Amino acid sequence: xxxxxxxxxxxxxxVRRFVAERLRPLxxxxxxxxxxxxxxxxxxxxxxxxxxxIAEEYGGLGLTMLEEAKxxxxxxxxxxxxxxSFGTNVGIGSQxxxxxxxxxxxxxxxxxxxxxxxxxSFALTEPDVGSDSGAVKTRAVWDGQAYRLSGTKRYITNxxxxxxxxxxxxxxxxxxxxxxxxxxxxxxxxxxxxxxxxKKMGQKGAKVADVIFDDVIVPxxxxxxxxxxxxxxxMRVLDRGRLHISAVCVGVAERLIADCVAxxxxxxxxxxxxxxxxxxxxxxxxxKTEALVAKAMVLETAAAKDAGKDVVMESAAAKYFASEMVxxxxxxxxxxxxGAGYIADYGIERLYRDVRLFRIYEGTSQIQQLIIARETIxxxx
Length: 381
Hints:
Layout: H1 5-23, H2 27-33, H3 38-47, H4 65-75, H5 80-90, H6 95-100, H7 103-115, E1 120-123, E2 139-142, E3 147-157, E4 164-170, E5 180-186, E6 192-194, E7 208-218, E8 223-224, H8 230-266, E9 268-269, E10 272-273, H9 278-306, H10 312-337, H11 339-342, H12 348-354, H13 365-379
Parallel strand pairs: 1-4
Antiparallel strand pairs: 2-3, 3-7, 4-5, 5-8, 6-7, 9-10
């Protein structure tokens, strides 16, 4: 159920001011320390950001997809690490439970996820398995009383602080997607261990790490859905996650464009502001046009999803276009700033590095192309 207009407008205004007044001044500190301040995390929990997509009956805000996308756009106007701190609780870390969990599972976990008391994570990618999600090698073997889970997951967002993992593991003899099942695996189960966080190109403050499962005993009550439904659950989760990431891409692009306009208006070359030079204007025009197109795609697809329509192709198209778009906008921003864009003082080079990841996670651009083509052919054009 959507929030009433007045309540939602108040939420957007609160998030917008929080981003501008609280988060943006901390960007350089987060980059330098590769960590988010604990007091900021506490403030985000208090605001309800960890429960944006979780129903009100479980303590969340219960936003629709369209409302969530609009909030994500606002959050895109600062370093993506801030959003990533609760992004798994809102998206891939919780949505398998929201979509496929039974009443007992939801009652046990969702209140604590929505409040931020516990952090969730989504464990699908493996050392040898990335885009081919149906080829997972992690196994969950039924021993007559429980599942015994063994395997390694790689590049898992928020693994360093996650309390609960949604894990995709092979339960059947089928080597394809139909042999994959989904499990809720608490971090404190014996045999669960976390690797050292990886050193990354960008998005400092948002950590990824390996998660190792060594003969972990997982009760049958922790399985999401039936055996063999894990891949289907994962794909549904990723469909929603792609729209959220697309919205963040729009927000980052809008931030970069605003920064470019401000800089180009003040910076003078050849006796006038560079904003008056036509080749600079062309880069601003291209960036603005592409950002507007991406925003329209995201909001239209989010509304269609709320209406119950099949948006597998549209979500992939939005993710593909928006993530590629923000990369082009960031590149132009460096060019508009010139030497200053390559120097850390202005933050443009940081965002340039940050946005590169959007074309990879939640499915690479090439995976989105395959989905778009497959769905278009299926629909007959």
